Amino acid sequence: MKRPLYSIRMQASRNGHHLSGAEHLSTKAELEPLAASLIKRALEHMRGRAETIQLSIDKVDEAQIGYGVLPDLHTYLVDDYHQGRRAAAAILQKAGVTSAAIEGAMVAMASGAAPDGHNMRGAMLIDAVSGYRLEPDQARGVRVSRMDLTEQARHELTLGLRSLGLDNAHVREALVLAGKVVTAPGVLAELCWSDDPDYTAGYVASAQLGYIRFPHLKPKGEERGGRAFFLAAGEQNLSELIDYLQCKPLLFDHIGQFHRSRQWVEPS
Questions:
Q1: Same domain assignment for residues 114 and 22
Q2: Of 10, 60, 126, 163, which one's alpha carbon is 20 to 30 angstroms from that of 141?
Q3: Segment 175-193, tens digit of pLDDT
Q4: Is residue 268 part of a domain?
Q5: Where does a domain end: 64, 94, 110?
Q6: What is the per-residue pLDDT for 47?
Q7: Burial level of 66, CB count in 10 A (0-12/13-18/19+)?
Q8: Distance (Å, whole) CA 185 – CA 240
Q9: Which has the minimum average pLDDT: 42-56, 120-134, 202-216, 226-240?
Q10: Distance (Å, rounded) from C-alpha 110 to C-alpha 106?
């Protein structure tokens, strides 16, 4: 008999701006220690102690839970964030995103994608051809929620990442989030780099190409970051997409393949 699951979500802010967030699916027995760990995470964030912490817990309808496979993981080594962004742009173009849409997303993420120039709480939704932003609220964006790993998949993921020297919360959580994003209707690809000042890595993800990580997508010390989801032109049902990203429970019960790091070679 399956144990009932709960969606637990944390969002923390400081000085009125987004600081940290996390999403998990949890059994009842795991809720209390997980809630404590999320609160501790918000209070000990590298960008400062959270002033406001919102914790939400909802029981998940077991009949609504979907199951999936995490994308394959690739790492391309780059010399600096300039080369990293050129590499990310090349991968996004392979996924069907135009250079105009890519440039617009990168400029927004580098300068602060929210209207006030700060980081958004969620992701931008961007037309992959025109580059137009489509999210209803450009301050909040769209937060991906209600996704996690089964116990067996979590164990396998830990072993796989450890073998590559990548077993850390940044990679684990980003891979699970990207795994849900690339299964969403109408999403061609995702671009992300962290807003944590000491973490310079980022990634591009798509259903066809997998999760492609770059150690440098921003300069060290930069606190601006975010996510952009590129949507196939003319295929956007925004309400359906947002409902899937925010509300559809998805458990990954299988992991993808892990590939050794390779040096990025600039296209000729």
A1: no
A2: 60
A3: 999 999 999 999 999 999 9
A4: no
A5: 64
A6: 72
A7: middle
A8: 8
A9: 42-56
A10: 6
